[in-house]
């Protein structure tokens, strides 16, 4: 029952011949009913949301709404956001902590010194704030840089960071993105490439960000891939395909089945909602959380 309806009922009761104790008893009953119909999250999925998708909403308002919906995290944040997250009892499941953006990543050895220094400078700050996962990127393909050479270069650059990451309890998480629609020439555009990189680095402090929207575009076969590769995945993102809008019946991915597959792997990390809402943002976010709460 909505609060406005509850007020109307109580006002009517108060004006009737009922005694005050009876009114109070009915009020308590109505309150219990209101709480009972409020959606409760099952706890199998740790829910998060990407800040950039809601950049038109003041960050503190986003945190308030996220908390009310039942989310535990607002992610892809910088240090300036972390005090506000702490204020609302939220974390940031994956943060920015270095780098030069999506297109200029570890596949370019000319950037290694700068990238390593950039990430290492932030590890202690991330740890102090209670965060763990830090996003990183492969960088783009070039005419003089094929996928095998990119693997070799990424391995060399990222291995330089593993000792420091392990010391600070940081996990570097490389995002898999599509190169067909949104990020032309991005190198880490297939799960197999990312898994091979994980194997070569050989550290539990390096994982993949499996973006369901991006990988649906590039390779499909989402559930089988998750089951086969889950030990290399440190984070998940959602998004409706086509268009990266709501993850409801208007798009082609059936998210309840995907979430069930993730849960069945034993995954205990976060799933971040990374769709761009076309409707009222908080209504869409609330719906997405319910869809994914298997």
What is the CATH C-level name of the largest domain?
A: Alpha Beta
How many alpha or pi helices?
11
Q: What series of H and E elements makes up the topology?
A: HHEHEHHEHEHEHHEHEH
The tally of strands reads: 7
Taking all residues together, what is the mean pLDDT? 90
Kindly provide the radius of gyration, computed on alpha-carbon positions and rounded to a whole number of angstroms: 22 Å
User: Could you say how many structural domains there are in total?
Assistant: 2
The first-to-last residue Cα distance is 25 Å
The gross shape turns out to be globular
CATH topology grouping of the largest domain: TIM Barrel
Low-confidence stretches: 1-38
Side-by-side strand order of the widest sheet: 2-1-7-6-5-4-3
Given helix and strand content, the structural type is alpha/beta
CATH architectural group of the largest domain: Alpha-Beta Barrel
Strand content: 5-15%
Classify the helix fraction into a percent range. Answer: 40-55%
- Report the CATH superfamily of the largest domain: Divalent-metal-dependent TIM barrel enzymes
- Please describe the biggest sheet, giving its number of strands, its sense, and whether it closes into a barrel: 7 strands, parallel
What can you see in these coordinates?
With 294 residues, the chain is α/β, with parallel strands linked by helices. Helix 1 (3-14) runs antiparallel to helix 2, helix 5 runs parallel beside helix 6 (147-168) and helix 6 (147-168) packs across helix 7 (191-201). It has helices spanning 3-14, 20-37, 59-69, 82-87, 112-128, 147-168, 191-201, 212-218, 222-229, 255-264, 281-292, and strands at residues 46-50, 73-75, 133-136, 171-175, 206-211, 233-237, 270-273. The chain has 2 domains: 1-38; 41-292, TIM Barrel (Alpha-Beta Barrel). The chain is globular and about 50 Å long. Residues 1-38 have low confidence and may be disordered. The longest helix has 22 residues, at 147-168. It contains 11 helices and 7 strands. Strands 2-1-7-6-5-4-3 form a 7-stranded parallel sheet.
């Amino acid at each position: 029952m909505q609060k406005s309806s509850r007020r109307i009922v109580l006002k009517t009761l108060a004006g009737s011949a009922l005694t005050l104790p009876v009114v109070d008893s009915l009020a308590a009953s109505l309150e219990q009913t209101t709480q009972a119909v409020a959606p409760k999250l099952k706890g199998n999925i740790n829910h998060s949301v990407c800040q950039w998708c809601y950049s038109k909403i003041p960050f503190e308002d986003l945190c308030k709404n996220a908390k009310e919906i039942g989310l535990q995290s607002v992610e892809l944040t910088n240090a300036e956001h972390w005090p506000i997250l702490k204020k609302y009892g939220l974390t940031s499941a994956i943060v920015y902590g270095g780098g030069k953006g999506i297109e200029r990543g570890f596949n370019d050895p000319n950037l290694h010194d700068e990238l390593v220094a950039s990430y290492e400078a932030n590890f202690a700050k991330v740890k102090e704030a209670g965060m763990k996962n830090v996003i990183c990127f492969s960088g783009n393909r070039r005419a003089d840089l094929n996928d095998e050479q990119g693997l070799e270069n990424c391995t060399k650059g990222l291995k330089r960071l593993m000792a420091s990451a392990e010391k600070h309890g940081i996990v570097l998480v490389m995002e898999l993105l599509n190169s067909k629609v949104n990020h032309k020439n991005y190198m880490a555009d297939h799960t197999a490439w990312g898994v091979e990189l994980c194997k070569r680095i050989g550290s539990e402090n390096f994982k993949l960000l499996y973006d369901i929207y991006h990988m649906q575009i590039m390779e499909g076969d989402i559930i089988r891939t998750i089951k086969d590769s889950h030990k290399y995945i440190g984070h998940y993102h959602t998004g409706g395909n086509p268009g990266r809008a709501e993850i409801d019946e208007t798009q082609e991915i059936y998210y309840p089945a995907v979430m069930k597959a993730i849960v069945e792997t034993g995954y205990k990390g976060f799933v971040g909602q990374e769709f761009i809402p076309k409707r009222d943002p908080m209504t869409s976010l609330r719906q997405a959380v319910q869809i994914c709460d298997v």
